[in-house]
What we know:
Chain A is mainly alpha-helical. Chain A contains 19 helices and eight strands.
Amino acid sequence: MEFLSSSTFLLPFYGFLKAFFVAMFGLNLGVILTWVERRMRGMIQDSIGPNRAAIPLPGPVAGGLAFGPALLGAAAVVGLWYSLGQDSGEGEAGGHAGWGMIFTQAAVFLIWAFTAIMARVVRERGAEGAFEEQFADLGEPRSIVLTGILTHLALLALGVASVGTPYEQSFTDLSFSGGMALLVIAMLGSAGYVALRLFPEKEVRLTLLGLLHPAADGLKTAFKNDFEPQKGDKLLYQLAPWISFFPVLVLIAVVPFGPALCFGKASDGSIDFSVFQGIEAVGNVCRDARFSLQVADLDVGILYYFAMAGTAIVGAALAGWASDNKFSLLGGMRAASQMVSYEVTLGLTVIGALMIFGTVRIDEMIRWQTENAWGIFVQPLGFFLFLAAAIAETKRVPFDIPEGESEIVAGYFTEYAGMKFSMFFFGEFVAVISSSTLMAALFFGGWHLPFETATGIAVTLGETTYFTAEIEPSALAVLGFLTMIVKVVALCVFQIIIRWTLPRFRYDQLMRLGWRKLLPASLVNVMLTATFILAIQSASAQVQGWLTWAGQLSMLLLGLGFLASVVALLVFLMTPRQKRKLVASSAARYAEAMGGVRSLKMEA
Amino acid sequence: MSQTSEDEVVLGPRRVVGRPVVRPARTASVQGYIPEMLKGLGQTIGYALRNTKEMALGTRNDPVLESIDDGINTISYPEQRRPYPERFRGVHRLTQRPDGSPRCVACLCCSTACPAQCIHIEAGDYRDDAQRAGYEKYPKRFVIDELRCIFCGFCVEACPCDAIRMDTGIHPAPYDSRDQFIYERDLLLAIPGREGEHETENPRVEPGEPGFPGIARLQH
């Protein structure tokens, strides 16, 4: 508890910052999820989702928006290059190898991405101007991308191969200065060309891939008629959306969004933020002061989650009751019974994890996972049950019987309109985000990457360390934060894919699944976990050594699986699809004479 | 046709010829729900990835030419249109002679044939010194009410001169007011055919030209 006593006047400010971040994360990711669900589902179903909302910008403004950030970025790169060069001007061999590699790789990425996009655009609408002519005969965009990826790998191999050879110094210097110059040229060139094209335009419609559409829809609801049923309970009717929206948003507060940061301690006992002592991970425990990346560093940890998730039920039930509508009442009752039933399973599935992790604090659960194995490997059944129960808790397909639009209009929010409706609607998405956040922390190691330690990556199997890479602690902190976000987003998208796929349960099926299948299964999970824990505690040292080895093997599997999926995705993206052309009607003949219908400008 | 005994099923009092539908086996994988669910999830993910890839790379199917392939074959209507087939009856046009005058001779066949009575023609005589005088008239007014028209094509069938056609390949546009649907002669003459042509393939020999049948009959 000493880190709590070390709080000073600054900590409330940081607490506010963290709370602000979490709220923004929940709300904005909610908008993005709405977009993913509507628009991407539209794509699966052969239709185009909504994307018509746009911000009209005058050409010069749009050009400035394209060029300004690039200019700032280029200035930042030059500044970084200059300050780094000043720092160790005495000629320290290999001092800037990392930065040189980053500059070069970024430059290569920008160049091939810009070239591929230009080649595609030129192929589609023909070259306009002498500059675009040069992209016309570069060949398939696919081959440009392949060349780019190969260049990345070749540069990396060259950098690794030059280590320890007489050429190391010259390679480092070349990649450091040349890479910087190339990066600046690529940034300014690509952004400058875009700005040049945009500048003379009268109006540029900024659509952000349709992301503005859910935002516009959300804004619109604020201005809609605020209907209120005549004979409903006025106070509860107003209160219900808040009660169902607020808890799911504050759920995220207990989950850490990155590794705890270790700082020095000032003389008056407060955190000295100028002394950074690395992240708290395998091989490093904070000695002086600890700054955790979660809003509420609570001792009750996960219990807070269940307390808050239980509150959300009240909102749905109240909404159904206060609306003075039979369908609402049915929906509210369904919501209450379903969520209470699945709350039991949700709680019991976590018991197994709690027994293994030996704590209710979520940051300590993550620490256990960093030292041993991710939760999904030690609690596979627990994860599956938790996933099912968590989806039921968020009242989404296939467990969306409280809403049940084919049976009871819209369920508990039938009588709600405008902003109050959208609070229910949006609360569902935020609930998805908060349950994904908890799942990422409980079962997917939170901010942890396989083999990540406090000093970098160390691939260890048994007693042997096969590969080590030193990474700056500050970079590790950023990496942990990004890893957590990526995991949360991936789990959210997975939940949305479940929603796209599965049909809704009937009410009796739902109850049967909850009480007769999931609940006994979670009890069995608790029993099995307890048995295993007892067996392991009394096992010999050799068996425990095997367990350590199995944990490391699981990390290796994760790492290899991740690499394999990246390669598979690349191969999938690069594989061309053979298309058959069928000109069997006069309409098709006209379309062929037009050069195809696809080439027409499409808004989607 | 010989029927095997397997194909004949007794359903109640009737004998039904056909093949009994084999119920899918209730295997563990089907009854267990989860394997089938995972299969479905995989299918959804596959479609999502493939369609997103096609959209991002700009290699979506051409919705008309490549529509037999899997993928998104939706035509985003106002921006993309499937061209109408060759024999689609679209907005009318009046065909022209080489000198730009209408081929129509104001015989009133089309307006007579029109079941919707949407064609109004006022015939006019050529001046006496004109070469065509005495042989044919011309339409002083030729008006089609496109809002009344039922696009049956009877006018095209009735026309002896190939003067009215519906091969424009455009559907009548929606307008703001009814008077905009009244197409006058000059507008009808200005509407081109599918290939942008204003004349027709059918030859027409004008009075005074060699081979004009009327002159030939007069001389004999």
